[in-house]
Amino acid sequence: MPKRLFPSCAAVPALALLLAGALGHAAPEGRGPATEAAWSGEAAPEALVLAYEAYFGGFHIGSARAVVSADGRRYRLEAAGRARGLLDWYAGWRGNVLTRGRLDAEPGTTDAAARRIVPRLHSHAGTWQEDRRWTRLSYGTGGAIADHATSPEDPDEADETTPVPSDSVNDTIDPLTAVLRLSRQIAAGEPCRADLRIYDGRRRYNLRVRDAGTRRFVANSYSVFDGEARGCRLAIERIGGFRKERSEYSETARERRVWVARPLPDALPVPVRVEVETGLGRAVMHLVGAAQGGKRIAVDPGRDVLADN
């Protein structure tokens, strides 16, 4: 498993959080005080805290935690992930991601649910085999990218990625803002359907989301969710910033489905299960914990999914 597989392999543990596997590089602010507060259980009372475990071919490969906060006018989404098992031994992958933005009122309406989602900041950071990378995007008042900074690229890898056309990043959003947009859409009773232009600071792609109906899940030793979830079928059109030579995992990925539901009665709909079928095996991510406003459910209440155990 060569080092150049950093982007695709590192994305697997956080797939449910980012829908298109965009977590895995780095951010200048890294794990600052605000991020640390979320992971230590000091998130705002109204925040939704989620925990996930990921498996590939039956092997435990990753863990992730996410915090979702929105007060009607602003939103903040952050997540952290780490490799497990052989992937951790081989790569020692760690990553975190943060998005902040506004919920702007649409002209002619006072409906809070109809507010337009406008990102202000997106940053992500990660380490793979001691190779640390970061990216930071800042947006102007209208949602256009105002500033873009990334860690220096390895000269040996510069020719291995496809270029990102400069005009293709116009009218794009970051991956976490895309997650929130779909969540609010489903919360409003609409089907899981969207065509989204995504740019994470390194990779530019179009995400085609189509409704896959509903499915009933029963809680078990792997997943805490019990109830009906709506399926979102994903298709990715690569525009730029991807490896020219695709990994076998990426090349053979077929069905990508994210199952979305409210893990707690008053929570936003979020991914409760992710399934990706590939020629190498099946990747599955389970929701193993959720907490908000004093309510909590967990497969193992005493376990910290990001701890070294």
Whole-number tally of structural domains: 1
Summarize the helix and strand pattern as letters.
HHHEEEHEEEEHEEEHEEEE
Q: Low-confidence runs (pLDDT<50, min 5 residues)?
A: 1-41
Question: Proportion of β residues?
Answer: 35-45%
- Judging from the principal axes of the Cα atoms, what is the shape? globular
Count the beta strands: 14
Q: Give me the Rg, rounded.
A: 18 Å
State the distance separating the first and last CA atoms.
24 Å
Mean pLDDT over the residues: 81
Instruction: Tell me the helix content.
Output: 10-25%
Which structural class fits the helix and strand makeup?
mainly beta
Tell me about this structure.
- The chain starts with 5 loop residues before the first helix and ends in an 11-residue tail after the last strand.
- The protein has helices at residues 6-11, 15-18, 33-39, 85-91, 175-187, 248-252; strands at residues 48-56, 59-70, 74-83, 94-104, 116-128, 131-139, 145-150, 194-199, 204-217, 227-240, 256-261, 270-278, 281-292, 295-298.
- The chain has one domain.
- The protein is mainly beta and 309 residues long.
- Helices cover 14% and strands 44% of the residues.
- Strands 1, 2, 3, 4, 5, 6, 7, 8, 9, 10, 11, 12, 13 and 14 form a 14-stranded antiparallel β-sheet that branches.
